[in-house]
TrEMBL record:
PROSITE patterns: PROKAR_LIPOPROTEIN. This is FAD:protein FMN transferase. It comes from the Bacteria. The keyword DNA-binding does not apply. GO terms for cellular component: plasma membrane. The lineage of its organism: Bacteria, Bacillati, Bacillota, Tissierellia, Ezakiella. It comes from Ezakiella coagulans.
Amino acid sequence: MKKRFIVFGLIVCAILMSACKPKDEAKHDMVFYDYFDTVIEITYFKDDVDEAKVKTVIEDKIKHLNDVLSNFEGGAIDELNKSGEKDWPELAPILERTLKLEDQTGNAVDISKGKLFDIWRDAIESGVLPPESDIKDALMQGGKGSVIVDGDHISLNSGAAVDLGSVCKGYLNEELKKDFDSLGIKNFIISSGGNVTVHGRRAADRKNYSIGIENPFDLGDPFDIIYTTDKSLVTSGDYQRFVEIDGKNYHHIVDLNTGYPSDNEKRSITIVGDDAFLCDFLSTTLFLKSKDEIDECLKDFPGYEYYIIYKDGTHFVSEGLKKYVKSCGATLE
């Protein structure tokens, strides 16, 4: 049995931070290890800044959202799942938006299937496959219409258990963008696991950042590089969290048609767009879809592009993304 937990984004930050210092603004780094079950790395560029204040504001927001959105024992989501209902003005709009996205994209992702996701989370941690009967039982719990949002009131039925793993880090990045704006900081990089958000200029003479797409076949070196700014890039893949049992890999992205981790031709998909929340949701959803289904789905989301790495080592770049991709001829500006 072999387990692997990849903190996607470390390679991205290494690429970004090696040459990102603007000529006219100081570079500041922050790293947080205790939230969202990942490493959160942030770099911002600003002269004459109160670093202690910035760190306090940012960490307070990360801690708060970790308490709100994560599924740890005794947390707010755990309490909702146990009680079955709650008045929750902060969470209700997050659930409502996610449920609408599920309907819009064919329900490949379902936040009500927390019991099924917990089974596979435990399996990856323990290295022991769950009984098929447990998977079948969990697959029957929740489903469309089992999470109901009425104003600020949230209610669960049909055995639903909320799990926001498909959107929580994207939501975090969007909220941190607001905090940086309120602090008067315009140039920054946020990397929360597989979710990277870049904003502003990487240097006075460079308008773009260099963002590496991790190579699932050779961790540590980028498979390719995207040059961009004012965008979020979110990757979902079968190599980030998985366990190998009897020579077969079982990862964390579950196919709701079978109840088992998805088994398709992709190793990873990276979504690029303006909104980290939407990129986060789409990266999980589109990992579960065929290329034709991806293209059809993204007709509803203009401006969102993708990069697929396949199991055979080939890759595909959507047409609108090519002008930003190194292997397609793009250069750092």
